Prior knowledge:
Layout: H1 4-16, H2 20-36, H3 41-47, H4 49-70, H5 75-92, H6 94-98, H7 100-114, H8 125-143
Helix pairs in contact: 2-4, 2-5, 2-7, 3-4, 4-5, 5-7
Amino acid sequence: MAPRGKLRPAFRRWRAGRPFWGGLLLALGGAEILLTLRASLDVVLHVGMQGLAGYLLPAVMLLCGVLILVNPTQRLFYSVIGVLVSLGSWLTSNLGGFFVGLLLGVTGSCLAFGWLPDQEPRVSRRRRRKEARAARAARAAGTGGGTALTSG
């Protein structure tokens, strides 16, 4: 087992290379809808296709969320399927898991769709302020008392 000090940076590198929050929210939305369905399999088979779709759509949501995490190169396809299935769960699965699973699925799909793999990581506001203060201090120290430019 790797020590804790090495495991956390490895997880952060793995997470930075994929739309982590989008895939996680989509998978959580599918899991939430599956957990809100309380009918047994006998009832589902008796009701027919409508009852089967109540289990099938959240399972596809869960699968798309996991596939976004595992295979981020196909995130556009999985996120489009995820948002369509999430919206379809509104009709088939207790109003999309009482709107919670529906909103988690749509939000996760949109996050995965909008994720850009080659984008530079954002710099925190605290770091930008610190760099701005350092630049102002360097400018103030470098100018001395204000030098005038003379034209030749």
